[in-house]
Amino acid sequence: MRPPLPQLVPDSCRGVGTARGAGRSRGRPAARGDGVTPGGERRAFHDFVAGHQRFLLTTHVNPDGDGLGSEVAVALWLRGLRKSAHALNDSLVPEAYLFLTRDVTAEAFEASLAERRFAECDAVIVLDTSNRQRVGRLAPLLDRFPLPIAVVDHHVSHVHGFGQVNVIEPDASSTGEIVYDLIRESGATLTPAMAEALYVALMTDTGSFRYSNTDSHAHRMAAELLSHGLDPQRIHAQVHSHASAGRLRFFGEVLSRLELMDGGRMAVMEAAPEQFQRHGLTGADTEGLVDMPRNIAGVDVVALFSEVEPGKVKVSLRSTGRISIDQVCAALGGGGHPHAAGVLLRGTRADARARILPELSRRIESPAIG
Amino acid sequence: MRPPLPQLVPDSCRGVGTARGAGRSRGRPAARGDGVTPGGERRAFHDFVAGHQRFLLTTHVNPDGDGLGSEVAVALWLRGLRKSAHALNDSLVPEAYLFLTRDVTAEAFEASLAERRFAECDAVIVLDTSNRQRVGRLAPLLDRFPLPIAVVDHHVSHVHGFGQVNVIEPDASSTGEIVYDLIRESGATLTPAMAEALYVALMTDTGSFRYSNTDSHAHRMAAELLSHGLDPQRIHAQVHSHASAGRLRFFGEVLSRLELMDGGRMAVMEAAPEQFQRHGLTGADTEGLVDMPRNIAGVDVVALFSEVEPGKVKVSLRSTGRISIDQVCAALGGGGHPHAAGVLLRGTRADARARILPELSRRIESPAIG
């Protein structure tokens, strides 16, 4: 059983709500790849790399640009050290990121393949999640095979990690930023392919350098990555140009019926099962839709009720910052972050609205409600 | 009479189509603000600043983030040198940029005010355009008052400028990037307010570091600007959170009827006069709409026919890169750039489609057509 959260809250939302630089002076090693000696966990990571030869890399279910970009960069780095590195994930590589996997194939879980990959390797590196369950169908294999594990992640949850080594730095914009530091600390030379993978990790997790997790270090990293001859426009097009006309028409239909409530502070949208069917879409195709009304002046919270199939409503919530909405979802069995959360509910859209909207209204009136 | 182009093609589109780094080694001074001696025109600009005391700053009609951000940064820099600096533009500051003008008021053209400002100053600095007509109603005053003029711009057109000094560097991502170099060359200290204004200039003209004009220098500049305590998420919200629910519903209606033609290579949208009226919108409110179908896989060109009022059709075209569309508009009296162009046509939407779509189809079939 996979947890319901991954499909509801894109992993790239994680960390968005972190106050800029909050705790960076405490939480991150002094080094930050700027030539200073790496901190303790980073040193342990370098020892981990030095001490093993055949690596299995993985990332969370429904992998995003940060997970895949980090995986590709680490694989290329390890291969440059004349070690072997295979990437194996629970899920297929989304079409948007296939261009990254020219040289490093990121395989999708298949029982016998996974057995073989686990048997072949002598160490595992888990990237972009420090939650053991988030590696999906690989989790039971981590239990069965007594392999040493290193975790590299920037997410706030599970700060202790489940590896022998845990480089978990919540102040980093992205796992790619930590990987970049680690590669530089190691003295290895970045290749254009590594730079491209790390750029994808960085730019997707910072919302193209827009989110509060973007700081000077992230921009200096981008400056160095671009110096390897990357064309940001081409990379952005590769990542983002996978929409279909049907998806855009569906977005249009939903947006055209946008409701404003609570004096303009809450924007509400609904999608009906017949709309998903007519345009040939799934729940995953709503990605990005709930973010669009965030730009409406005065809006504090956005709610999207997607009845993907009759009686099954995917609720996606966004906050523009004044109020936290994760606990609304957590109370119903979902999860997320203060600014982006979701939950899957049984019943009609009307049922889901009745459970969610009053809770949001209460928070809009009293932002202090947890 | 104002030229029709400004309302049709946002100035921020300019330069988007420039190949990354093309000619940079030739076109830009070696310095780029990195401590080397500035090139000839930059030196002349510093002499220009040193030689005058009371400056009038202006930028193009319908000012954007780059024009206004550059204006505010230069005004604060000059005031730090104990000189006077007034900003006067043809147009009002758009709501999105009002937050920049806390300390530096950017006044809008009014005949007697303009007379006074021109009489008071002893030099003019024109930012973000090297086309004399693009300063709108200030142009006749530039003729009447025999004032020394300095031009700072990054646009490709009018490379020779009309000033005594012309710092025109088409390889720069933005005028703000040139202003940043000039300020650093001068040895002046950046203040947080100057950093914020320059960040807005940079991030708006690079499409948040997405366009091909973004290079390592732009990211290094962003790294330094953010070190002054800027919060990118807050600034992006200030610039972008001015949508109305009506505008988003209007976008939705138009998108929901998106047409694909020419085997999926051309996306076409229409907006009717009654839609503008019903949502209380003007032609300017379509900004951003024509860009949305660019993400559809396989689309080469997007056309939006906005019948803002009956018999008046604003045509907005975008190319995703394979074909150039500016000459389609130029042939009908409009203008623009290879990737973003527009023209205002009299007649019905059907008339406008009949004139534009066959031309686009011809180019899709034979990209070489100029």
TrEMBL record, chains A, B:
Residues 278-362 form the DHHA1 domain. GO terms for molecular function: nucleic acid binding. This is Uncharacterized protein. Residues 1-42 are annotated as: Disordered. It comes from Eiseniibacteriota bacterium. SUPFAM superfamilies: DHH phosphoesterases. Residues 55-201 form the DDH domain.
